[in-house]
Amino acid sequence: MTLIDALKDEDIINIRISHGNKWMYYDKSSLLWNVMERKYHSKYNTVLYEGDSEEDAVQILTDNA
Questions:
Q1: What is the mean pLDDT of residues 42-65?
Q2: Hey, which end of the chain has fewer CB within 10 Å, N or C?
Q3: pTM for this one?
Q4: How far apart, in whole angstroms, are the C-alpha atoms of residue 36 and residue 26?
Q5: How far apart (Å, rounded) are the C-alpha atoms in residues 53 and 20?
Q6: Helices (H), the chain
Q7: Interacting residues of 48 by C-beta distance below 8 A, sequence separation 6+
Q8: Residue 64 pLDDT greater than 80, yes or no
Q9: Share of the chain above pLDDT 90, in %
Q10: How far apart are CA 65 and CA 60, in angstroms?
Q11: Are 34 and 49 spatial neighbours (Cβ–Cβ below 8 Å)?
Q12: Is the Cβ–Cβ distance between 49 and 60 less than 8 Å?
C-alpha cells in the first residue's frame, strides 16, 4: 500500500502526512485533498490547498517556500 492509498483507505480513520509545519490529509467526506500549515507562534491554521489534485497537494506540502 502506498501513502496515497493509505490516506484514501476508508478503513483507516485518521491519517496525515507531515512535513515541517505543514500537513496533508484526504477528506473522505468531501473527497478533497487538504494541505494545512501552522506557523510558529501562530494561533490558527492556514489552509494552503483544498482541491482534488493529489499532485498539487504533494507539491505544496513539499514546497520549501
A1: 91
A2: C
A3: 0.85
A4: 11
A5: 21
A6: 3-8, 54-62
A7: 22, 35, 36, 37, 60
A8: no
A9: 58
A10: 9
A11: yes
A12: yes
